[in-house]
Structure formats: structure tokens, C-alpha cells
Amino acid sequence: MNRIQQLFEKRNKNILNVFCTAGYPKLNDLVPIVESLEKSGADIVEIGIPYSDPSADGPTIQYSNGVALKNGMNLKLLLEQLKDIRMTVSIPLIFMGDINPILQFGMEAFLQACQTIGIDGVIIPNLPLREYEEMYKPLFERYEQSNIFLITPQTSEERIRKIDRLTNSFIYVVSTYAITGGQLAVDAQADYFNRIKAMNLNNPTLIGFGIGDHNSFHAACQYLNGAIIGSAFIKALDGSNDVKVTTEKFVKSIIN
User: Fold this and answer.
1) Could you tell me the pTM of the whole model?
2) Environment class of residue 149 by beta-carbon count within 10 Å: exposed (0-12), middle (13-18) or buried (19+)?
3) How many C-alpha atoms does 70 have within 13 Å on its Cβ side?
4) Which domains are present in the chain?
5) What does 77-95 look like in DSSP terms, one character per residue?
6) 37, 90 in Cβ contact below 8 A?
7) What is the pLDDT of residue 54?
């Protein structure tokens, strides 16, 4: 049982997954941010791999990618920065990134590195489901990495159930067919969320895109197992003089 499964085994409500971009706001801020996220109450940390043309990301996360790349962040350096992360952090850690830098690094080499440093799962929005199933699934299993899939309001029930069969962690429920960073009226998507809940999937479900404050987080948690916050946290970090203090204040504002 991996760390993600262990988390949901212990608790399946009000799960907070916080996204941050590696190398933002400063090159070496990632480890203190991740440590502070755990300390302040986040349940999962989703670490964005900076890329010049990220998939589905809105202006805020695109901006953080640009800053991180300008700072000198790359996948090799990211893996080096996290080599000792399991000495101080115990909650699940997930990478999210475009498939292109991962393929350039080498899929097997990447997954092996993830296992070595203690990463629990990977979100690759533009990795086709069929390609994963036919080419990469054995590698993910060999290196004990969960491949976390995204679904949207337009995703068919047939595809959702197939994703559920191929998943061993959680399903990322994209709240709307849009990019990150918008503001979501959670109840406006009630039919969608209730439809997912009524499917009685084998895996937990977390709502992402448009969740950014205490009210939207707790509203999302009324429907599914928890929610993912990204752009709002990136905005909070912008210009921060102390990322640890900023992180702790932000997380507490969400969960308290």
C-alpha cells in the first residue's frame, strides 16, 4: 500500500492537496515550501515540473513556470533537490508535468528516480490513456508510481470507469472544461459532482481547478473526497519574504 492509499485508508474526507511549482518563487524554495505544507496541515503536495508550454495551466501557473525556468529550474535539478526529502516529509508527494521533458529525460529513468526519492505518483495531463496502458503501465508498476488521471464534465462514463480500473490512488476531477486559476461556483457543478459520486468508483476523487479559498475548498469537500488548490497558493507566494510563514498562513486560512 503506497502513501496515497494509506492516506485515504485513514481518512477519506476533507483531503487538501496543494500544488506548487518547483523553483518558484526562488530556485531553492521547494523543500522549505513542501516541509511547511506538511507542517501546516496539507495532506498531499503536488509539485509542478516547470515547462515552457504547460498543459491546461492558466496565467498564474504559466507565470510561475516562467519564473522557475528563468531561475534555472529543470527536471534534473528538481530530482536533486528532493533526494533527501523523505528525511523530513512523510505525506504523499506527486509530480505534475508535461510529457515532453519527461520523455526527454527518459520515462524509465524518470520513474526510477521518482521511486528512489520517494515520489508516490505522477500526473501527466497530455499522456494519452491508451499510450499509458499499452506502453508505460508496466514501468509505472515496476517503480511503484501511481499514474493519476484527469476527468472533466465531458468525460464519458465508459472512460471514467476505465480510468478507475487503471488507477490505484485517486482521480483528479477537473471542475470545469477550462484552464486553472478561475473562480469556481462549486454548487453550479453539483450535478457533475453528484454524478461522479453516484458512480461509486473504487478510487477516491479530488476536485481541482477553481478551488482557492476556505469556502470553495469546504464546498468541494461536501461532494467528493477533497480538493486541489494551486493558483491561489502560487499568488500567495508571489513576492513573499518568507515562504515558510506564507505557506503556513495560507494553509491555515484554507482548513480552519
Assistant:
1) 0.94
2) buried
3) 9
4) 3-255 (3.20.20.70)
5) HHHHHTTTGGGT--S-EEE
6) no
7) 62
119-131: string of b/e by CB count within 10 Å (b at 16+)?
bbbbbbbebeeee
Closest CA to 21 of 176, 52, 42: 52
Sheet containing 93-96: order of strands: 146-147, 121-123, 93-96, 44-48, 15-21, 226-229, 205-208, 171-174, 150-151
SS3 115: helix
Residue 227 one-letter amino acid: A
Question: How many CB atoms are closer than 10 A to CB 24?
Answer: 27
Hey, which bits of 91-151 come out as E strands? 93-96, 121-123, 146-147, 150-151
Cα–Cα dist 174/191, whole Å: 14
Residue 119 CA to residue 46 CA, distance in Å, equals 10
Catalytic residue numbers, as ranges: 46, 57
C-alpha cell at 85: 526529502
Please answer whether residues 238 and 25 qualify as being in contact, where contact means their C-beta atoms are separated by less than 8 angstroms.
yes
8-state DSSP, 14: S
User: What is the mean pLDDT of each successive set of 10 residues along the chain, which is 256 residues long?
Assistant: 94 97 98 98 98 72 94 97 98 97 97 98 96 97 97 96 96 75 68 96 95 94 96 95 97 96
Report pLDDT for 180.
Answer: 47
Radius of gyration of the chain (CA): 17
Instruction: Give residue for cell 529550474.
Output: 73
Report the candidate in 67, 65, 59 with the shortest Cα–Cα distance to residue 47: 65
